[in-house]
């Protein structure tokens, strides 16, 4: 699993940005990708993302993400392709045939537009996921807590969110170790049928559950040792402050948003 | 300030058995107090009461007696797993977490962070991410985070149990700093070996009762209590325990220098090169690694051209600091990792095309943390898991006899995760007795074990050897390694430095200096006293000293 789903320590401008700037980027891009359905606009947004990733030196981590979600993206593409094939669209057709089932007439019409539609939906999902992942890769959980606190999010909520991002890599590591331990004592998960493999993965979930419960217990004890009380006002060792880089990044986000909206208005094909 | 615990009794529920029975003790100001006792004696419950976890977080039990700790008193705990205790991505974030919770002004927080970084000499770690620290460094940061809260009492629960020798040295030096700064400290650990030079006061618990309360030297003088409590004591004290019954007028000692001073006055040093035992007959290497190299995907070179053979019926220990490549090597032996270059062969055949489960029929690896392995619903089921997974026939009588021999019969229907850490570990090791594997690899098998369980472990390892099995051991418990191993394989920075019999390697002081591991006191004393054979365990050392004393006596007569 390596660095998947966790902060990666690098000295890049993206890492140095104020977490709030990255939160704003994430919110805007999430909203944008929820509404924008123009292939041209999404393609433009993808190019902007690509520039951000490459200049922030996280390109290879985004490739890892792409690799992990490729099956999901393919599924979305095929789903829209198949659904689209039962709708007659304008534009060039690859194959069209009429047939009937139980006396009901149907038209199977595979058009180039169906491919376009499948690609648009896959790209939208990928951009949504990667906007979130860009923030996760470049913002550690302490910065996430600080950022949320500065937005007046109650500390209990901010701490909870930060804790989730602290614990996820631990659980991923625990799962990998438990798999290794079980294989080492004879549990076959490599050379067996898919059903047996699934059954064996379920077996592994029990020690994982115990480990997670035990970690949860240790963490609650540690919160007690450190006198964490959400009713008492906390102070902060570190302060976060926006810089010129934040202003620049925010400007890029704003310009990219405006251009995307213009492209959406001008090049929108109903999908 | 001092803390008085008076008539404290506790049980987890009205129907549950009494865990603590009328505990009376005092934790003295500016002293280091050790609380020792076997698994299940009530140490952890006492820590929960002292730290306020009982009754603040766990309030369903019955607690009586008094422990004077008001709201204004700060008592902090350092647990054995700092990764579960540290909140914060960076070292500074983690250290500041507790003081931020106290609502101190920013200036005060900065001052306290600087103070603890200076006090523990860990300024160089301040900009590091917690996840990139070694075990010892992580524990030092954990101690710093607790000290920053300026606690009246710091309790440390087995703080070095999972650290390598380098990590232990770091925590020893941190504790020395604390002691000289006048910090009142309690260390809960049944292994007194690593902190015997720091401890002032020892409290022994057994079955929920205080059975010893005195200073360190008094504890070291009470052999029966040490044995009853299953406390692991410094090897020097073990030597004294062994010799004091046979050598008249021997004064007590607990350090290497004291032992040397006491014994050198009685033994004339002879400048003869040390004799080695006759080399044992070499048997065939059942398992071999040939030119084994491993480079991970991120480019990290974990092993460089390792060549080694593991002989049938031998106990071979792999030594080295964390990161030297020990675990990576054994994960190649059972197929969890595939080599970048080179090969692993079992009985002459390359293992590459086999799955890990297939290899486990011949080579089985028992992991460091038993929770990663246990998932059956009863101790009995867990014991026989390997046999069932590998299709090895076994009888119920056989399994029950093993449980009885190792004091687990009464727990046979218990959920394995409910056992103490030491017993859980023992159970995972016992399960390999029913496997078909000829090579057993044990990674840090002593984790969480008191002396009683450790004796069981030694017994199991010898039993495996007698059955002609090869045992490969990774352990930071160096005295144990020298006591039970036949051969050693030393790794450092991904390379093999040396391999050979333990006596041959014990003779090479430079080798152990290079890997920064202290040789056991018996080896060092044998050399300093000029014994003609380097002893690797207390029994053979005592035997050598006695025979030398007899020789001197005879020559005088």
TrEMBL record, chain A:
Compartment annotation: Membrane
Q: Which domain of life is it from?
A: Bacteria
Which keywords accompany this UniProt record? Cell membrane, Membrane, Transmembrane, Transmembrane helix
Q: What CDD domains has UniProt attached to this entry?
A: EcfT
List membrane-spanning regions: 23-52, 72-98, 118-141, 153-172, 208-226, 247-269
**In which broad location class does this protein mainly occur, judging by the first location in its UniProt entry?**
membrane
Query: Is tRNA processing given among the entry's keywords?
Result: no
User: What does the record say about its membrane topology?
Assistant: Multi-pass membrane protein
Tell whether Chloroplast is among the UniProt keywords.
Answer: no
Instruction: Name one cellular component (GO) term.
Output: plasma membrane
Q: Which InterPro entries match?
A: ABC/ECF_trnsptr_transmembrane, ECF_transporter_component
Q: What protein name does the entry list?
A: Cobalt transporter
Q: Which organism is it from?
A: Sporolactobacillus laevolacticus DSM 442
UniProtKB/TrEMBL annotation, chain B:
| Start and end residues of each ABC transporter domain | 3-232, 287-518
Q: Which Gene3D superfamilies match?
A: P-loop containing nucleotide triphosphate hydrolases
Localization in the cell:
Cell membrane
Membrane topology per the entry is: Peripheral membrane protein
GO MF: ATP binding; ATP hydrolysis activity; ATPase-coupled transmembrane transporter activity
Q: Does the keyword Cytoplasm apply?
A: no
Name of one Pfam family that matches: ABC_tran
Predominant place of localization? membrane
GO cellular component annotations of the record = ATP-binding cassette (ABC) transporter complex
Keywords linked to the UniProt accession: ATP-binding, Cell membrane, Membrane, Nucleotide-binding, Translocase, Transport
Would I find Transmembrane helix among this entry's keywords?
Answer: no
Coiled coil ranges (UniProt) are none
* Stated family: Belongs to the ABC transporter superfamily.
State the protein's name: ABC transporter
Which species is this UniProt entry from?
Sporolactobacillus laevolacticus DSM 442
């Amino acid at each position: 699993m390596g660095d998947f789903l966790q902060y990666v320590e690098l000295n890049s401008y993206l890492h140095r940005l104020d977490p709030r700037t990255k939160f704003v980027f994430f919110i805007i891009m999430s909203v944008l990708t929820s509404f924008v359905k123009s292939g041209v606009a999404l393609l433009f947004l993808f190019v902007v993302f690509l520039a951000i990733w490459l200049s922030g030196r996280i390109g290879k981590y985004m490739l890892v993400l792409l690799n992990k979600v490729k099956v999901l993206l393919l599924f979305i593409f095929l789903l829209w392709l198949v659904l689209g094939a039962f709708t007659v669209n304008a534009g060039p057709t690859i194959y069209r045939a009429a047939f009937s089932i139980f006396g009901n007439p149907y038209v199977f019409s595979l058009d180039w537009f169906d491919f376009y539609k499948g690609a648009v939906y896959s790209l939208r999902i990928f951009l949504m996921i990667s906007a979130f992942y860009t923030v996760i890769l470049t913002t550690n959980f302490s910065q996430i807590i600080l950022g949320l606190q500065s937005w007046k999010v109650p500390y209990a909520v901010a701490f909870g969110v930060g804790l989730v991002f602290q614990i996820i890599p631990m659980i991923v590591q625990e799962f990998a170790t438990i798999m290794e331990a079980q294989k080492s004592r004879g549990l076959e998960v490599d050379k067996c049928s898919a059903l047996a493999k699934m059954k064996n993965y379920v077996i592994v979930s029990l020690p994982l559950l115990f480990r997670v419960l035990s970690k949860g217990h240790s963490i609650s004890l540690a919160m007690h040792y450190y006198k964490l009380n959400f009713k008492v006002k906390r102070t902060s060792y570190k302060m976060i402050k926006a810089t010129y880089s934040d202003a620049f990044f925010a400007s890029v986000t704003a310009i990219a948003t405006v251009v995307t909206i213009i492209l959406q208005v001008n090049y929108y094909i109903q999908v | 300030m001092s803390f008085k615990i008076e008539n404290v009794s506790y049980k987890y529920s009205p129907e549950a058995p009494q865990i603590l029975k009328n505990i009376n003790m005092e934790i003295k100001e500016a002293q280091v107090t050790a609380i020792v006792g076997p698994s299940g004696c009530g140490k952890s419950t006492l820590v929960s009461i002292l730290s306020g976890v009982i009754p603040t977080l766990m309030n369903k039990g019955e607690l009586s007696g008094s422990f004077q700790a008001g709201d204004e008193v700060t008592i902090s705990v350092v647990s054995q797993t700092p990764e579960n205790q540290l909140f914060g991505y960076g070292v500074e974030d983690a250290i500041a977490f507790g003081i931020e919770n106290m609502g101190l002004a920013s200036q005060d927080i900065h001052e306290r962070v600087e103070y603890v970084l200076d006090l523990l000499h860990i300024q160089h770690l301040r900009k590091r991410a917690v996840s990139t620290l070694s075990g010892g460094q992580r524990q030092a940061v954990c101690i710093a985070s607790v000290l920053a809260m300026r606690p009246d009492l710091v309790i440390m629960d087995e703080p070095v149990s999972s650290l390598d020798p380098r990590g232990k040295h770091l925590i020893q030096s941190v504790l020395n700093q604390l002691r000289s700064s006048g910090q009142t400290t309690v260390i809960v650990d049944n292994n007194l070996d690593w902190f015997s030079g720091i401890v002032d006061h020892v409290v022994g618990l057994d079955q929920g009762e205080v059975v010893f309360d005195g200073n360190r030297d008094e504890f070291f003088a009470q052999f029966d209590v040490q044995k009853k409590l299953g406390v692991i004591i410094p090897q020097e004290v073990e030597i004294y325990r062994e010799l004091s019954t046979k050598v008249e007028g021997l004064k007590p000692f607990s350090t290497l220098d004291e032992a040397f001073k006491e014994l050198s006055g009685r033994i004339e040093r002879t400048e003869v090169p040390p004799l080695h035992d006759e080399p044992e007959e070499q048997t065939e290497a059942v398992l071999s690694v040939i030119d084994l190299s491993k480079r991970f995907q991120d480019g990290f070179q974990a092993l460089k051209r390792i060549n080694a053979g593991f002989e049938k019926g031998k106990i071979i220990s792999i030594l080295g600091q964390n990161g030297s490549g020990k675990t990576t090597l054994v994960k190649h032996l059972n197929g969890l990792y595939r080599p970048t270059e080179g090969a692993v062969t079992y009985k002459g055949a390359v293992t590459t095309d086999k799955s890990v489960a297939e290899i486990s029929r011949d080579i089985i690896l028992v992991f460091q943390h038993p929770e990663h392995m246990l998932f059956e619903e009863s101790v009995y089921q867990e014991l026989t898991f390997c046999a069932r997974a590998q299709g090895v026939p076994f009888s119920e009588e056989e399994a029950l006899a093993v449980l009885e021999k190792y004091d687990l019969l009464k727990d046979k229907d218990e959920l394995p995760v409910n056992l103490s850490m030491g017993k859980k570990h023992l159970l995972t090791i016992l399960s390999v007795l029913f496997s078909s594997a000829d090579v057993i690899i044990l990674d840090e098998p002593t984790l969480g074990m008191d002396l009683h369980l450790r004796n069981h472990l030694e017994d199991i390892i010898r039993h495996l050897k007698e059955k002609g099995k090869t045992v490969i051991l990774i352990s930071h418990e160096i005295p144990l390694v020298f006591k039970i191993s036949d051969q050693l394989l030393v790794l450092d920075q991904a390379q093999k430095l040396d391999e050979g019999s333990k006596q041959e390697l014990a003779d090479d002081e430079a080798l152990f200096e290079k890997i920064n591991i202290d040789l056991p006191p018996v080896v060092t004393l044998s050399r300093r006293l000029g014994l003609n054979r380097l002893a690797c365990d207390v029994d053979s050392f005592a035997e050598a000293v006695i025979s030398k004393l007899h020789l001197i006596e005879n020559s005088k007569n």
